[in-house]
């Protein structure tokens, strides 16, 4: 009974989050404490209450670094009187602890159905709500954007990230070949034509790593150290990339893929085009300048980073980079989140769970580039952190497979009721 209730509430949370993502336009800002704000945030606060026992256990177990983060950073910001920063941190830690405690396992078929339903809802919303500037077929997109880019969400980034998650789910699926083929075609179609470069890069890294790691899953050192090294190399490369891109900017492919079709740029212009290294740098400067390295709390990123903006300069919120934003906001206690993520990678590497190890670099890349999308009230936040925390057992298909193998060794083992 409780298992069915939890499953229904979990599916309801995912479906409601998808629906709200359809209603909010790409450039629309949600006013704090408005009805839309509460419709987005309240489910993330209320739904996890069904798992309160599991959350308490997670807080004393694998989630203890998150609790330390909340106590240290939250306590400091409370003493500073920054209540908004405290509330935001509580929501972040609360949802992460919920994901740690999640004992609901949906099948890969269920995620395929959710994806298909999202496409249908997005197509209907395109004609009814008129808040999606992107089309779902080539050349339907507004002329203000690249006309061949597609999205069934008003935010093209959501489409790219959800498509990537679907492809990961299909790779773990035991469903029929026809269903997997159709799902793969839909996932690749929207991943490629949404042209979310970070999602495509994450997928390009995940695919070969998953194949390699599935063959060497007994070697935990490869499963652990290769993702860590890749994360460092990739972000180091991004930091120095503008110095090389400026040399190849006249190449049409380089210009279109990495510089949004622009040429005649200097190194500073390329940094502005990429924007993320500049944001990381500013976040780190704010962290170093904060009192006792405890972060600035809530602050207006753009006004601090650019005191005198140039005409027509794009306004960046700083929320694009999740990890460095947490560092700038909450100071050195944010390193406990990094420790938590690396600890989960280590534990799964020791257990031979190749999925976590293969997707780890991709999730870090997403968090460093689209942190505003990975908000704790978003279904994508829950889905991607499930992959990091639960690995292959995110999907019921793999839970059943493990139970079948275990029963072959011991016929007295009963199957779990977490569907």
UniProtKB/TrEMBL annotation:
<feature type="transmembrane region" description="Helical">
    <location>
        <begin position="222"/>
        <end position="248"/>
    </location>
</feature>
<keyword id="KW-0472">Membrane</keyword>
<feature type="transmembrane region" description="Helical">
    <location>
        <begin position="36"/>
        <end position="52"/>
    </location>
</feature>
<feature type="transmembrane region" description="Helical">
    <location>
        <begin position="85"/>
        <end position="104"/>
    </location>
</feature>
<protein>
    <recommendedName>
        <fullName>O-Antigen ligase</fullName>
    </recommendedName>
</protein>
<feature type="transmembrane region" description="Helical">
    <location>
        <begin position="149"/>
        <end position="168"/>
    </location>
</feature>
<feature type="transmembrane region" description="Helical">
    <location>
        <begin position="59"/>
        <end position="79"/>
    </location>
</feature>
<feature type="transmembrane region" description="Helical">
    <location>
        <begin position="188"/>
        <end position="210"/>
    </location>
</feature>
<feature type="transmembrane region" description="Helical">
    <location>
        <begin position="284"/>
        <end position="302"/>
    </location>
</feature>
<feature type="transmembrane region" description="Helical">
    <location>
        <begin position="7"/>
        <end position="24"/>
    </location>
</feature>
<feature type="transmembrane region" description="Helical">
    <location>
        <begin position="354"/>
        <end position="373"/>
    </location>
</feature>
<keyword id="KW-0812">Transmembrane</keyword>
<feature type="transmembrane region" description="Helical">
    <location>
        <begin position="322"/>
        <end position="342"/>
    </location>
</feature>
<keyword id="KW-1133">Transmembrane helix</keyword>
<feature type="transmembrane region" description="Helical">
    <location>
        <begin position="111"/>
        <end position="129"/>
    </location>
</feature>
């Amino acid at each position: 009974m409780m298992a069915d209730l939890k499953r229904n509430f979990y599916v309801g949370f995912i479906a409601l989050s998808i629906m709200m993502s359809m209603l909010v336009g790409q450039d629309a800002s949600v006013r704090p404490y408005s009805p839309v704000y509460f419709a987005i945030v309240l489910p993330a606060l209320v739904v996890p209450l069904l798992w309160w026992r599991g959350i308490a256990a997670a807080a004393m177990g694998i989630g203890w670094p998150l609790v330390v983060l909340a106590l240290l950073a939250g306590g400091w910001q409370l003493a500073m009187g920054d209540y908004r920063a405290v509330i935001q941190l509580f929501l972040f830690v609360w949802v992460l602890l919920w994901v740690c405690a999640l004992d609901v396992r949906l099948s890969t078929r269920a995620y395929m159905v959710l994806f298909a339903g999202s496409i249908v809802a997005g197509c209907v919303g395109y004609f009814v709500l008129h808040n999606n500037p992107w089309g779902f077929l080539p050349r339907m997109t507004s002329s203000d954007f690249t006309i061949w880019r597609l999205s069934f969400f008003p935010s093209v980034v959501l489409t790219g990230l959800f498509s990537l998650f679907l492809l990961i789910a299909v790779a773990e699926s035991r469903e029929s070949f026809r269903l997997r083929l159709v799902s793969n075609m839909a996932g690749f179609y929207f991943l490629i034509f949404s042209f979310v470069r970070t999602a495509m890069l994450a997928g390009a890294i995940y695919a070969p790593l998953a194949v390699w790691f599935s063959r060497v899953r007994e070697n935990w050192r490869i499963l652990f150290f290769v993702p860590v090294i890749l994360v460092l190399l990739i972000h180091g490369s991004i930091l120095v990339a503008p110095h090389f891109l400026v040399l190849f900017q006249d190449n049409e492919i380089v210009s279109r893929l990495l510089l949004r079709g622009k040429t005649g740029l200097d190194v500073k212009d390329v940094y502005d085009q990429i924007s993320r290294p500049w944001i990381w740098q500013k976040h780190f400067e704010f962290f170093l300048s904060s009192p006792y390295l405890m972060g600035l709390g809530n602050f207006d990123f753009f006004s601090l980073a650019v005191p005198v903006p140039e005409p027509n300069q794009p306004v960046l919120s700083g929320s694009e980079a999740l990890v460095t934003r947490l560092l700038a906001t909450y100071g050195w206690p944010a390193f406990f989140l990094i420790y938590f993520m690396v600890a989960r990678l280590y534990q799964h590497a020791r257990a031979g769970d190749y999925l976590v190890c293969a997707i780890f670099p991709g999730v870090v890349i997403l968090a460093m580039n689209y942190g505003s999308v990975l908000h704790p009230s978003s279904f994508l936040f829950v889905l991607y952190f499930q992959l990091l925390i639960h690995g292959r057992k995110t999907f019921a298909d793999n839970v059943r497979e493990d139970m079948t193998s275990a029963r072959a060794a011991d016929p007295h083992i009963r199957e779990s009721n977490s569907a």
